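User: Show me a protein chain along with its predicted structure.
Assistant: Here is one chain, sequence first, then structure tokens.
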Amino acid sequence: MKIRVQFFSHLKDLVRASELEVDVAEGITAGELLDLLYSRYARMRDWDSSILIGAGVEFVERNHVLRPDDEISIMPPVQGG
């Protein structure tokens, strides 16, 4: 299945794109998607402990099973000001 993945802040600089379409197996989790992205964009792994994952408009845990209609956001922690 194809998943739309959006990147924010310095993560989009590391990937060199603000959005990618990624072909993944059905039943993949958000954590497994991150592992796949790390294999393609190794420098992302440096930020692993602080990465937040959103599916639609909600933050999700890494064990969240992705659905074909999910829009996934990969971002650093949100900072207020």
